[in-house]
Amino acid sequence: MAKLHIKKGDTVYVNAGDDKGKTGRVLEVLVKKNRAVVEGINIVSKSTKPSAKYLREASSRLRPLCTSPTSMW
């Protein structure tokens, strides 16, 4: 298993991608997948199917980000 250069609680800077130039705090590290969940980075909206219980809504989720385009801040 490879060791990653970031860990939970670190503040990282995104060097590439749609969120280039943003900084955020690492919430979770997925070592086997070489990914990390960063606060405020890589937010995706997910629509829910309408039903009798719930109306059609869109919710925001944090998705894991590859650790290679990140650096310590």
Task: Map the helices and strands.
Blueprint: E1 11-14, E2 23-30, E3 35-38, E4 43-47, E5 58-62, E6 65-66, E7 70-72
Antiparallel strand pairs: 1-2, 1-7, 2-3, 3-6, 4-5
Summarize it.
The protein has a single domain, classed as SH3 type barrels (Roll), CATH 2.30.30.30.
The helix tally amounts to: 0
In angstroms, what separates the terminal alpha carbons? 25 Å
Question: What is the CA-based Rg, rounded?
Answer: 15 Å
Main CATH class: Mainly Beta
H/E element order: EEEEEEE
Describe the main β-sheet briefly.
5 strands, antiparallel
Structure description:
The protein has 73 residues and is mainly beta. The protein has one domain (1-45, 58-73): Roll (SH3 type barrels). 0% of the residues lie in helices and 42% in strands. The chain has strands at residues 11-14, 23-30, 35-38, 43-47, 58-62, 65-66, 70-72. It has a five-stranded antiparallel sheet with strand order 6-3-2-1-7, with no helix packed on it. The mean pLDDT is 87.
Give me some keywords for this one:
elongated, two-stranded antiparallel ribbon, 7 strands, 73 residues, 0% helix
